[in-house]
Design brief:
By secondary structure, this protein is α/β, with parallel strands linked by helices. It is about 35% helix and about 20% strand. The chain has a 10-stranded mixed β-sheet with strand order 3-4-5-6-9-10-11-12-13-14, covered by helices on one side. The protein has a two-stranded parallel ribbon with strand order 1-2. The structure holds S-adenosyl-L-homocysteine and iron/sulfur cluster (SF4). The site of S-adenosyl-L-homocysteine (SAH) has 15 residues, from strand 10 and strand 12.
């Protein structure tokens, strides 16, 4: 089998080219053809020597992922379903806004974390995506969109690792893909505009800060360990104080001077004023050590199996106002592309649960969630 060149960051490609007896700088030319020009055919790479092109034809290829479907929302959001083989499919979403184009990228076929409110988590876990499968989503989307929108300039200005999967549980494939996104010979994205979103894999947050610091979003969803244990099972391994302590350390290396905390608003579960007050207390405790953060409240996107409901708008507003009055920048995420099920947590792709994770999670879910009995204040 020949190598898919989408599997490499520039350094990896240089090593590959050296293996073919080519100089390292040839890798830079090749990398630019692939990522900046969207080329897959070596014969079209006119400034590469013919001998090198012949070697590449024997030993390498550039392969996109087969597309199973493409849906375009009335708000311009586009969702693709990509085939990653053996019955697994993953989703990628493009979200156009006035001042930016954001691509939401998947890192795994399924997810082993199994958050209660996430339809990816409900599907179970099949496998990690390779670097090529992660980068192929950006490679295809960027070059498709340039044609589709008749644009020669870059279309995608921001990447968020917020599609299917927990990116920090696929660390070794994630990092080269991030490096290709940041590379000036690749996509040239600013570190501030590439965001890894994590449910809180603490040791890998440390490594990310050392290996490839990019913007970090942390999916918090609860102000106490008791509630978070229930919503995000990974919390039992890395509880809140440890997680927020690591967020504080991450800021020493981060390209932004704050962490974004994502908080999915679940009716009567985590959305009361008292929760917001507990959240303020929790975060203030860590602010004393240097934690700086913003909150992004995400109205829950319901799906049948979850048994959960979306908080109503007034409750979300009330929750936000507690955070704002305490001095935290807080935004309420607009739902985009919900006519094509492209909103947060609706990305279910199609995953064979080869690891039995979905069953184990279903058993845990048999334990009813502790619904709040606090009065609305
Ligand atoms: N695994 C990573 C990234 C993928 S999920 C993480 O958990 O951070 C991206 C975001 O969507 C997370 O903040 C997640 O909590 C949120 N999300 C998941 N399911 C959702 C749903 N049904 N409605 C709204 N947001 C959801
Ligand atoms: Fe996995 Fe993130 Fe979904 Fe949790 S919210 S199950 S970590 S994809």
């Amino acid at each position: 089998m020949t190598a898919n060149l989408l599997d490499f960051d520039l350094e990896g490609l240089a090593v590959f080219c050296e293996g073919l007896g080519e100089k390292r700088f040839r890798a830079t030319q090749l990398f630019r053809w692939i990522h900046q020009r969207g080329m897959a055919n070596f014969d079209d790479m006119s400034d590469l020597a013919k001998t090198m092109r012949e070697k590449l034809k024997v030993h390498a290829h550039v392969a996109a992922l087969p597309i199973l479907s493409q849906q375009i929302s009335k708000d311009g959001t586009i969702k693709w379903l990509f085939d990653v083989g053996a019955g697994d499919a993953v989703e990628t979403v493009f979200i156009p806004e006035d001042d930016r184009g954001t691509l939401c990228v998947s890192s795994q076929a399924g997810c082993a974390v199994g958050c209660r409110f996430c339809s990816t988590g409900h599907q179970g876990f099949s496998r990690n995506l390779s670097t090529a499968e992660i980068l192929a989503q950006l490679w295809f989307a960027e070059h498709f969109l340039r044609q589709h929108l008749v644009q020669t300039e870059r279309v995608i200005s921001n990447v968020v690792m917020m599609g299917m999967g927990e990116p920090l549980q696929n660390y070794s494939a994630l990092v080269p893909s991030l490096r290709a996104m940041l590379d000036d010979h690749g996509y040239g994205l600013s570190r501030r505009r590439v965001t890894v979103s994590t449910s809180g894999v603490v040791p890998m947050m440390t490594r990310l800060s050392q290996d490839c610091p990019v913007a970090l979003a942390v999916s918090l969803h609860a102000p106490t360990d008791a509630l978070r244990d229930n919503l995000v099972p990974l919390n039992r391994k890395y509880p809140l104080d440890e997680l927020l302590g690591e967020c504080t350390l991450y800021l020493n290396k981060a390209p932004r001077d704050f962490i974004t905390f994502e908080y999915c608003m679940l009716k009567d579960v985590n959305d009361q004023v008292s929760h917001a007050q507990e959240l303020v207390t929790l975060v203030r405790k860590h602010a004393a050590q240097g934690l700086r953060c913003k909150f992004n409240l995400i109205p829950f996107n319901p799906f049948k199996e979850s048994g959960l409901l979306r908080s109503d708008d007034a409750t979300v507003e009330k929750f936000a106002s507690v955070l704002i009055q305490a001095g935290f920048v807080t935004t309420i995420r607009k739902t985009r592309g919900d006519d094509i099920d492209a909103a947060c947590g609706q990305l279910a792709g199609d995953v064979k649960d080869r690891t039995g994770v979905a069953d184990r999670i279903a058993q845990q879910r048999a334990v009813p969630i502790q619904w709040v009995d606090r009065k609305l204040s």
